[in-house]
Amino acid sequence: MPIYTYVCEKCGEKFDLLIGVTSEKVELKCKKCASKDIKRIFGTFSIGNSKGKLNSSGGTCPTGTCNL
Description:
Blueprint: E1 3-8, E2 14-18, E3 38-41, E4 46-48, E5 54-56
Antiparallel strand pairs: 1-2, 1-3, 4-5
């Protein structure tokens, strides 16, 4: 299931939501003020490799295959 990052247009709170791939409708609202005026934004992520080290999408390794 994908995790999306949102920002509330009302209070400025930034939060992540896990969105399922089922037929269930999830009510999208701010976790802080409950406003439905939210906007999906690009977030950063990290993945582990076989050596237990992390590669980050925001780091200096654009391919994600650099040795850390």
